[in-house]
């Protein structure tokens, strides 16, 4: 029997028949059928959502005259040890890329297993759906690596890997169509009961993304105040996680499940002419205690589990089908079908008419990106939605948000701190707000409870050698994880020096944690100028000769995904000192709005470009930095698409 490591050969596999629909996506769900394994590796839950869709599609297929069924089973890559590869026939892998081209944290061991095993998977047919984002230089790297490795292990490819740019469902659906088409023609897949070894799976007692801990908010204090429209509102929150079983390491992030603004929920219910007490099926992604019940009232479901900011194209499609006003129908049709020009371009490149959900439909994407669910319902209001189910099936799942933890467990392992800039802005003449930051600021009161869990960030750590100097650049709320790092350095015996680069608009208004940092680093407060236009946060850890290694990380922080870059570069201590003596490292001090002429980070970088390239040259010569890393470095120094 070929099992992944840590799996007992003599385990008692209980193949209980489970019939509950909410349980069907769990690996413990098992019925007799033609077994198909779906392995998903996810950081933020999208791969799991796609896997559920695939599961449903595969479950619906009837094969042959006996109308037998496929029995898909979904296994999170973190639970890969329950897989008995010898028994598998078909394996579909849906995996995202995280960090700077690395597997999702929970999928690392699975990828490591695939890389190191030399077992033949000749008997397995497979296909990979790689999820990613073209804004990252290492687009879909993990999916590509997994695909290559499966092929090296002699598994046969059912259909070519598809690489998905963000949530491009047209690509996802095309891949699923091909998989379904292939499988529908396979009568040789054996019918069996399930044989997964579930004994090694995590129990539900440890809080996780699916089972968050209800932490008490014990402190909420403003770090900056809004005295004019231009000012930023930044808050510091402390959550009590005593007896939760949760632990973290500085560099990790806290996942927080927000609630929507109740007035937005009420407004939507009014437009739909529902009163909110109607019952619907509890969404499969609901956390406890809601997940324990079969149904939930519509108001609670929309408040806690559905995204009212991001629009699913299904909502436009539904409205297009049911609006009664001709003008609205025509507008929706135009929106969904877009101009002839882009259809032709799309047909030419993709040889398909499935353009409705494609990113190539930029007109549609622009419409969606600028609007929220309530805007769409207001724009096209001649509808009658018959059932709450009809409506919620067109909404996205409300995702947890991740905040870099701004406190060290060494200081207090029962209190988790986060630092958040409250998001409020105007778009299309309407006031808009960030869901979680306004939930924390406006709706969550001290002593209230809120669902939280830990999100590991294993690449983003202080160097293990305390003597190693550390340079941190974290403008604005980018300072959050560095506050935790600095708290740790404070507790170390003979710590190496810490260089902190911080940027903000005004010295007296938004210099976060000014007093604390002033205490810790009186001798090295290097204030960089404005951060607003900084695309990237660069973190330089200097390493001793002995530790010379290159580490690349991405950190979950509050910046939009494409701005989330943390890069570690190795620098030799002596070199660092020498560079400093030679003036290669100089201090740049500027607050963007404290003088009449604005000065930004990129202006300083541009001015220093020659110097910076010399520095990068030295780093590159010193370490074995590969071309991927050079791309990332180039990205840092071209914040305004300027080539330095
Ligand atoms: C911090 C972070 C780092 C990422 N790094 C990459 C990357 O290096 N390459 C890539 O193709 N996509 C990258 N992505 C995009 C994700 O792979 C993409 O959003 C995917 O749909 C997420 O799926 P998941 O929720 O299942 O993890 C990154 C996303 C985040 C938030």
UniProtKB/TrEMBL annotation:
Keywords attached to this entry: FAD, Flavoprotein, FMN, NADP, Oxidoreductase
SUPFAM superfamilies listed in its UniProt record: Ferredoxin reductase-like, C-terminal NADP-linked domain, Flavoproteins, Riboflavin synthase domain-like
All copies of domain Flavodoxin-like, residue ranges: 36-180
Cofactor: FAD; FMN
Residue ranges constituting the FAD-binding FR-type domain according to the UniProt record: 210-463
Residues annotated as signal peptide: none
Segments of skewed composition (Polar residues): 1-22
The protein's name: NADPH-dependent diflavin oxidoreductase 1
Ranges for region Disordered: 1-26
PANTHER family per the UniProt record, alphabetical: NADPH OXIDOREDUCTASE A, NITRIC OXIDE SYNTHASE-RELATED
Highest taxon, organism lineage: Eukaryota
């Amino acid at each position: 029997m070929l099992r992944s490591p840590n799996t007992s050969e003599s385990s008692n596999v209980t193949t209980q028949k489970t019939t509950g629909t909410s349980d069907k996506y769990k690996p413990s769900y098992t019925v007799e059928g033609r077994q198909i394994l779906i392995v998903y590796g996810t950081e933020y839950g999208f791969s799991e959502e796609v896997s559920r869709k695939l599961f449903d599609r595969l479950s619906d297929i009837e094969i042959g005259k006996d109308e037998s069924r496929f029995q898909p089973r979904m296994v999170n890559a973190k639970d890969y040890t329950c897989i008995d590869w010898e028994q598998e026939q078909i394996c579909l892998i849906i995996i995202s890329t995280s960090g700077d081209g690395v597997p999702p944290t929970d999928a690392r061991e699975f990828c490591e297993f695939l890389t190191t095993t030399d077992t033949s998977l000749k008997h397995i047919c497979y296909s990979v759906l790689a999820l990613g984002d073209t804004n990252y230089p290492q687009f879909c790297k993990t999916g590509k690596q997994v695909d290559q490795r499966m092929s090296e292990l002699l598994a046969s490819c059912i259909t070519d890997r598809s690489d998905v740019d963000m949530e491009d469902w047209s690509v996802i659906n095309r891949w699923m169509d091909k998989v379904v088409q292939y499988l529908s023609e396979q009568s040789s897949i054996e019918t069996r009961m399930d044989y997964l070894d579930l004994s090694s799976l995590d129990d539900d007692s440890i809080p996780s993304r699916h089972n968050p801990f209800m932490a008490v908010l014990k402190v909420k204090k403003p770090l900056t105040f809004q005295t004019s429209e231009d000012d930023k509102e930044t808050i510091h929150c402390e959550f009590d996680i005593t007896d939760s079983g949760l632990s973290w390491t500085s560099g990790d992030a806290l996942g927080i499940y927000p609630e929507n603004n109740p007035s937005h929920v009420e407004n939507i219910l009014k437009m739909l002419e529902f009163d909110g007490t109607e019952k619907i099926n509890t969404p499969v992604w609901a956390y406890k205690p809601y997940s324990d019940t079969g149904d939930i009232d519509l108001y609670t479901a929309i408040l806690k589990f559905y995204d009212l900011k991001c629009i699913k194209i299904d909502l436009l499609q539904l409205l297009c089908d049911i609006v009664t006003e001709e003008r609205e129908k025509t507008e929706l049709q135009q929106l969904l079908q877009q101009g002839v020009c882009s259809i032709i371009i799309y047909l030419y490149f993709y040889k398909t008419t499935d353009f409705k959900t494609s990113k190539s439909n930029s007109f549609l994407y622009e419409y969606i990106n600028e609007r929220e669910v309530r805007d769409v319902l207001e724009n096209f209001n001649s509808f009658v939605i018959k059932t709450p189910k009809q409506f919620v099936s067109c909404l996205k799942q409300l995702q947890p948000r991740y905040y870099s933890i701004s406190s060290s467990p060494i200081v207090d392992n029962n209190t988790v701190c986060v630092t958040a800039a409250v998001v409020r802005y105007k778009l299309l003449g309407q006031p808009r707000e960030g869901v979680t930051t306004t939930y924390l600021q406006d709706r969550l009161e001290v002593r209230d409870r809120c669902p939280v869990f830990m999100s590991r960030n294993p690449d983003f750590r202080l160097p293990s050698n305390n003597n190693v100097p550390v340079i941190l650049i974290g403008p604005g709320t980018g300072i959050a994880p560095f506050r935790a790092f600095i708290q740790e350095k404070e507790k170390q015996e003979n710590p190496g020096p810490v260089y902190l680069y911080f940027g903000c608009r005004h010295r007296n208004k938004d210099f976060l944690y000014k007093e604390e940092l002033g205490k810790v680093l009186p001798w090295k407060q290097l204030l960089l100028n404005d951060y607003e236009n900084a695309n990237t946060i660069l973190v330089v850890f200097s390493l001793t000769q002995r530790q010379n290694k290159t580490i690349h990380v991405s950190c979950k922080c509050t910046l939009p995904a494409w701005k989330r870059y943390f890069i570690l570069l190795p620098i030799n201590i002596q070199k660092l000192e020498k560079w400093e003596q030679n003036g290669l490292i100089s201090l740049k001090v500027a607050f963007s709005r404290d003088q009449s002429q604005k000065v930004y980070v990129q202006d300083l970088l541009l001015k220093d470009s020659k110097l910076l390239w010399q520095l990068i040259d030295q780093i590159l010569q010193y370490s074995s930095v590969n071309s991927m890393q050079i791309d990332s470095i180039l990205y840092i120094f071209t914040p305004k698409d300027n080539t330095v």
